Amino acid sequence: MFKMFTTLVRARTHDAAEAIEDANALTILRQQLRDAADGLQGAKRAVAVVIAYAEREKNSAAKIAGQINDLELRAIEALRQDREDLATEAASAIAELEAEAAASARATAHYDAEIRRLREQVSLSEQRLRALQRGKQIADAAARTQKLRGTMPDGVVSSLREAEATLERLQSRQDHAEAVDIALRDLTTGPSAEGTVARLAAAGCGAPLRPEAAHVLDRLRAKTA
Fold first, then answer.
1. What is the three-class DSSP state of 200?
2. For the chain, percent of residues with pLDDT exceeding 90
3. pTM
């Protein structure tokens, strides 16, 4: 039971840590990129230091080569003058200088190899950093977009839906009322039985619907006779 409890505590701690990391992922990414950029600058300075050491070693090797050449010329002159002692001393000095030159050559080769390796690492790191910075810009843009989307309150969206429904109902009622008006106009202006009879009577088809003046006058004359 105790083991299960400790496992639960560790699980919740891990989940909480992940939740914090997820919620602050963009902030963490920015700081990580700053750290990486600072580290890259440090690496560049390290390369510069190694290059300076290599240049110093090359200058030292050139100086040694000059000393060896000078001693060889002087030793040859000493031999010409039968000064074996001076020639032997020069030869000893030349041997020491040649040992130094060999060590300097090995150091220079080591520096050159190290400089190539460090430059490749710096170049690769710069490419990765630029890719991460582009990714951060995309993440920044996405975060701003999401933030803007989050500024739209739910009440506004709900009100818009309700307004759209109200407008749809209003337009439906208006369309219905217009259809009713059209139907009424058609009924009013259309032919009816009474209208047809009146037009037939006026044309002399059948008995008139109302007394005519001539008939009334004839009836009045008959009363006076």
1. helix
2. 26
3. 0.52
